[in-house]
Amino acid sequence: MEITTENAHLQGESISKKEQELITQLVNIRKEQNQELPFENLDGYEVPPRTQFSMLKKPALTFKLSKMEFNCAAVRLFKGITQILPVVNRAKKRLAAIPCQEEESASVEWSRLKKDVYVSKTITSVDFVERIFELMGWDRTCRYKILGRLAQTERGLILVFDFTEAIMFAPKPVEYIDKVTGLTKKRQVKYYPDEYKYKIGKSYNDYVAFHQQSLFENLEEYTDTTVAATPTAPLLDKGENNE
Known about the structure:
Elements: H1 17-32, E1 46-47, E2 60-64, E3 67-70, H2 72-77, E4 83-89, E5 94-100, E6 108-109, E7 111-114, E8 117-120, E9 123-124, H3 126-136, E10 143-153, E11 156-162, E12 167-169, E13 174-177, E14 184-187, E15 190-191, E16 202-203, H4 204-213, E17 223-224
């Protein structure tokens, strides 16, 4: 394998001029000695969940009692599309957002045009959101956020959200003392899925395998969210006071 400075660049990141010079020197030395850079076996490595990094520019879906909302990053992926068909795979615990026309009978408005810019729109659906909370056993006092991924289907590109990857946000921020300033501050408490409790993330091999399998989504396993089913349970549990 030919060694070039391009191999030293990390995708989406930049390096300083000094680092560039050091890498170039290393590459030149290796070339002179006719040596290749050491090979690193990625077995045993773990990939931290993307939810542990900035989520501002990534498509996301948020659930809270009786409401759901896609963020602007999700809306921008399908610029000009104001309607989606939300379908749920209860077996795999996923929701797919399929871009569609307003004329489609089960369409839901997820965005609107505001001052020449498409912005996200809060979707209110007491029964549907309650079903999701019930399916996942979620705490109705908390807020849940899920990052989405693009997938190809027989209907074209869609967004898929895996409920099992949801982050739970506590109902209220907690106070803490800033060790530097000594001031009392507040911060939002969030909880990650239990599968990450004793590890950093998925194994690299599992990550690669899932990525390859997730490029195409089979919609035959999904259910139209407008289809009637058994009556939903009350939004408030006995003795529970939700605001």
